[in-house]
């Protein structure tokens, strides 16, 4: 019984800790990629808001990583600053999309979400 209790408590702790654990940069990118598809596919406001919220968190987490192309560059170097600025641009557009999603205008939100692709392409051209 005690062992079962310990198992339950530790698995609960693990599950609540996992979402806040650091992800790798490719993990963050996969959240963004899955989110791009999910946002276009859904007609449910709550699902769209939660997808965009996860995408925002992934973009924030991506800022805690230095891409391989910038390996060895200091955090305050022009290049790393430019990488952060590109992710901030993405976050700003996610926020515009989130605002539309929160009003319930999902069609408008989908149009705003399409603009994320150009920011992605620019980011990939410079840093991937
Ligand atoms: C919605 C926007 C974005 C999507 C959907 C996206 C998607 C992806 C995907 C699918 C990968 C491949 C991950 C893998 O190798 O398994 C990737 C890699 C990468 N992306 Fe993005 N991306 C986005 C925005 C950005 C932005 C804004 C930047 C830069 C500021 C960026 C920088 C990178 C870098 C550096 C890699 C290589 C990561 C590595 O191999 O370690 N991405 N992205």
Description:
This protein has a single domain, classed as Up-down Bundle (Four Helix Bundle (Hemerythrin (Met), subunit A)). The chain is flat, with a radius of gyration of 18 Å. The chain has helices at residues 2-17, 25-41, 45-62, 78-103, 106-114, 116-127. It has 6 helices and no strands. With 128 residues, the chain is mostly helical. 77% of the residues lie in helices and 0% in strands. Helix 3 (45-62) runs antiparallel to helix 4 and helix 4 packs antiparallel against helix 5 (106-114). The longest helix has 26 residues, at 78-103.
Structural key phrases:
binds protoporphyrin IX containing FE, mainly alpha, 0% strand, Four Helix Bundle (Hemerythrin (Met), subunit A), 6 helices
Q: Give the radius of gyration.
A: 18 Å
Separate helix tally: 6
As for the number of domains, it is: 1
* CATH architectural designation: Up-down Bundle
The H/E string reads HHHHHH
Q: How would you concisely characterize the structure shown here?
A:
By secondary structure, the protein is mainly alpha-helical. It has helices at residues 2-17, 25-41, 45-62, 78-103, 106-114, 116-127. The protein is flat and about 60 Å long.
Secondary structure layout:
Layout lengths: L1 H16 L7 H17 L3 H18 L15 H26 L2 H9 L1 H12 L1
The structure holds protoporphyrin IX containing FE (HEM).
